[in-house]
């Protein structure tokens, strides 16, 4: 392309510059050809009008001057400066175009991270996976864990206390020493302390049965009285056996063993049957001693129960509310009750006139807690990250419940930071290390973080790895992988990550086969007790736990593709859908007045088919894709990440039903709740409602279909058969 630029000096045309911007077809920078004509010709013999006209006819011809004058020199300098400026601008703009252009998908170029300290990478940063594993193994040792145990062990570090804050500062100092970017997250939450004066009390037939140091946070305060019943573990099946014996729970005090389900679930089950109070005692008194005190909470949820569904920041402008999951029953931990060791199963303890009185005087207090974070930034997708987390607080020493997990967290941060700084490992995605406070009160610190940053975490955090309680025995037992068909338990710290936030989550631990570690939630959770449960192999087992969790995290940030198999859910949905189908058909056959023949599971099964096809299609797409193409790889990973989020029911309130996942969550929106509702209709239960069931049925169907549509990718790829 040619373009003509005229410049003027003192208002008169003095020169013409011709630019030849012919584009090189091979993609090189445009070249500039410049031909200059100036009125210098007038100084060298161009005196007549005719000569000026000749210039006009051919303005691009440069006539060689006959000599040099000061004026000529000025014009030459101005011309050279003009050429230089124009050339510089063109070169600069061409260079900027190269910088701003998207990196080649086949040869990914990593742009400088938003965090300081990262430089542009011109080559694929991947290290061979076998080398990554080997490096991690080399950097974790029993001696380093012994040092960490000594540093993070504490006799007193209850949430919000000075001991908790001291440990938080130690973790933060370690992260800073490793060169990580660090920050803290502050919340003001409602926690529960034991009575400021006096104690909680239990009396039997007017006699005081001893001082209670242990307590259950968030239990209703006050006094309750009633004849005592033994309810085994307090599971609903246990309590139904009482009903089968024509024993009513109304106004009774229920005595149950610890274990099987959470304290909160035990109290909730008793509340459903109108019990007046619940006493919980250690299931394994023979091992831990009859005087052992239990600590825990009875919030049937996670997070601060007085800010359900939203974060407990200091400037939160919500009116005071109470979680749906707090019950009116009194609940307390009790260490000994006459003759209960000899009672197996369920039934009465004593006569109806033998009254038990339970008095709860716990104190509700607002406290500030801090979560501590450190991050190792990724080199390709730094805005995508896996989170490793461990609770920092405990009721007492909490060696197994908090010290080991905190040590594994910090040692993993040290090892992986060293791999990045000194061994050339460059993770594609980021790794966030989180030290939570108030874990003993129901994952309060972690849940408040999820609630505070839900929208930003939604498509950023692609996995959570829980490090709490990873060593409680000798043998490896991987529990509750998010795709394992085994739902996470309500009291698992990973539970809110998947059920509230839709973040794929994993918990694991080393256990002694056939035995539970009985000291969690007691003041006997010490190094000596854990040594006894592990034959003095705590440090060695912590190394194995760190390597196991570290390799999960490193694989997720190393590979192009996130290794989360979306096809695993097909079988789980299939089982639940066919269970619902058989119950609907049975009910329509036996009680057609409840469910009309027009109600069919066709659409639910069609939604299952849509999800199955979308998952299979994505698998085929992955097999046929070049994962070196950065945009394609990112698109596929985003679709994989969206699955758990899209299984969160959009039709229920996070405040009223926080665990919105329809497959592993809890509430009326889940597929399990649909099946249970059909059972209630079959039994003509008072809470059963056929119209409500049909609404829940439709919403569950559309949740599955919506997940299938999202997994399919582009809107034109969705399955419109429904």
From TrEMBL:
Record-annotated Transferrin receptor-like dimerisation domain positions: 600-711
InterPro entries, sorted: PA_dom_sf, PA_domain, Peptidase_M28, Peptidase_M28B, TFR-like_dimer_dom, TFR-like_dimer_dom_sf
Main localisation: membrane
All residue ranges annotated as the Peptidase M28 domain in the record: 371-473
Gene Ontology biological process: intracellular iron ion homeostasis; receptor internalization; transferrin transport
Residue intervals passing through the bilayer: 73-93
Domain named PA: residues: 243-286
Description of post-translational modifications: Stearoylated.
Tree of life domain: Eukaryota
Membrane association type: Single-pass type II membrane protein
Any one GO MF annotation of this record: transferrin receptor activity
Cited Gene3D superfamilies: 3.50.30.30, Transferrin receptor-like, dimerisation domain, Zn peptidases
GO cellular component, as recorded: external side of plasma membrane; melanosome
Compartments, as annotated in UniProt: Cell membrane; Melanosome
Keywords: Cell membrane, Endocytosis, Glycoprotein, Lipoprotein, Membrane, Palmitate, Receptor, Transmembrane, Transmembrane helix
Family: Belongs to the peptidase M28 family. M28B subfamily.
Protein function: Cellular uptake of iron occurs via receptor-mediated endocytosis of ligand-occupied transferrin receptor into specialized endosomes. Endosomal acidification leads to iron release. The apotransferrin-receptor complex is then recycled to the cell surface with a return to neutral pH and the concomitant loss of affinity of apotransferrin for its receptor. Transferrin receptor is necessary for development of erythrocytes and the nervous system. Acts as a lipid sensor that regulates mitochondrial fusion by regulating activation of the JNK pathway.
Subunit structure: Homodimer; disulfide-linked.
Protein name from the UniProt record: Transferrin receptor protein 1
Organism ancestry: Eukaryota, Metazoa, Chordata, Craniata, Vertebrata
């Amino acid at each position: 392309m040619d373009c003509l630029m005229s410049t003027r000096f003192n208002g008169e045309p003095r020169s013409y510059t011709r630019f030849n911007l012919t584009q090189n077809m091979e993609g090189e920078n445009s070249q500039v050809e410049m031909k200059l004509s100036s009125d210098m010709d007038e100084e060298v013999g161009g005196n007549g009008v005719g000569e000026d006209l000749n210039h006009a006819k051919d303005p691009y011809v440069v006539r060689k001057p006959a000599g040099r004058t000061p004026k000529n020199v000025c014009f030459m300098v101005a011309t050279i400066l003009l050429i230089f400026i124009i050339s510089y601008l063109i070169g600069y703009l061409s260079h900027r175009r190269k910088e701003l252009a998207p990196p080649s998908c086949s040869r990914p170029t990593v742009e400088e991270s938003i965090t300081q300290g990262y430089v542009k990478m011109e080559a694929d940063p991947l290290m061979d996976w076998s080398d990554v594993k080997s490096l991690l193994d080399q950097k974790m040792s029993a001696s380093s864990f012994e040092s960490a145990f000594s540093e993070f062990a504490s006799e007193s570090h209850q949430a919000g206390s000075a001991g908790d804050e001291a440990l938080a500062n130690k973790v933060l100092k370690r992260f800073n020493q490793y060169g990580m970017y660090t920050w803290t997250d502050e919340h003001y939450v409602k926690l529960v302390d034991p009575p400021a004066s006096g104690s909680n009390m239990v009396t039997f037939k007017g006699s005081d049965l001893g001082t209670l140091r242990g307590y259950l946070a968030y239990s209703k305060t006050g006094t309750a009285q009633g004849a005592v019943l033994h309810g085994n573990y307090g599971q609903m099946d246990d309590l139904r056996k009482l009903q089968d014996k024509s024993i009513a729970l109304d106004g009774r005090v229920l005595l149950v063993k610890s274990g099987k389900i959470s304290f909160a679930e035990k109290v909730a089950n008793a509340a459903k049957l109108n019990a007046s109070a619940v006493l919980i005692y250690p299931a394994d008194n023979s091992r831990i001693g009859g005087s052992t005190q239990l600590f825990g909470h009875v919030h049937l949820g996670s997070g601060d129960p007085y800010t359900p569904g939203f974060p407990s920041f200091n400037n939160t402008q919500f009116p005071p509310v109470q979680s749906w999951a707090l019950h009116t029953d009194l609940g307390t931990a009790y260490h000994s009750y006459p003759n209960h060791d000899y009672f197996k199963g369920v039934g009465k303890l004593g006569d109806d006139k033998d009254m038990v009185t339970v008095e709860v005087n716990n104190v509700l207090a607002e406290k500030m807690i801090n979560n501590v974070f450190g991050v190792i930034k990724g080199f390709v997708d730094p805005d995508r990250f896996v989170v490793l987390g461990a609770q920092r607080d405990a009721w007492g020493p909490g060696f197994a419940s908090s010290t080991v997990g905190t040590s594994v967290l910090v040692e993993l941060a040290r090892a992986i930071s060293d791999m990045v700084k000194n061994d050339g490992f460059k993770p594609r995605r980021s790794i966030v290390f989180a030290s939570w406070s108030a874990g003993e009160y129901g994952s309060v610190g972690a849940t408040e973080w999820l609630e505070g940053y839900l929208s930003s975490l939604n498509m950023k955090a692609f996995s959570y790895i829980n490090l709490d309680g990873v060593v409680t025995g000798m043998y490896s037992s991987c529990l509750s992988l998010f795709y394992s068909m085994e739902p996470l338990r309500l009291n698992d710290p990973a539970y809110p990550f998947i059920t509230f936030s839709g973040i794929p989550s994993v918990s694991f631990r080393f256990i002694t086969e056939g035995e539970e570690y009985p000291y969690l939630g007691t003041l006997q959770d010490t190094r000596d007790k854990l040594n006894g449960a592990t034959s003095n192999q705590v440090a060695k087992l912590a190394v194995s736990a760190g390597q196991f969790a570290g390799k999960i995290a490193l694989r997720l940030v190393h590979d192009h593709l996130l290794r989360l198999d979306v096809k695993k859910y097909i079988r789980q949905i299939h089982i639940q859908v066919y269970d619902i189908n058989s119950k609907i058909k049975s009910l329509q056959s036996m009680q057609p007045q409840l469910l009309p023949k027009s109600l069919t599971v066709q659409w639910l099964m069609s939604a299952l088919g849509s999800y199955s096809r979308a998952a299979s299609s994505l698998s085929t797409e992955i097999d046929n894709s070049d994962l070196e193409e950065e945009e394609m790889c990112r698109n596929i990973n985003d679709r994989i990440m969206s699955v758990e989020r899209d299984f969160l029911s959009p039709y229920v309130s996070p405040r009223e039903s926080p665990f919105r996942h329809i497959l592993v969550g809890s509430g009326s929106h889940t597929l399990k709740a649909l099946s249970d509702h059909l059972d209630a209709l079959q039994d003509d239960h008072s809470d059963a409602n056929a119209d409500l069931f049909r609404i829940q049925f439709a919403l569950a169907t559309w949740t599955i279909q919506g997940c299938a549509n999202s997994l399919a990718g582009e809107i034109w790829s969705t399955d419109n058969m429904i």
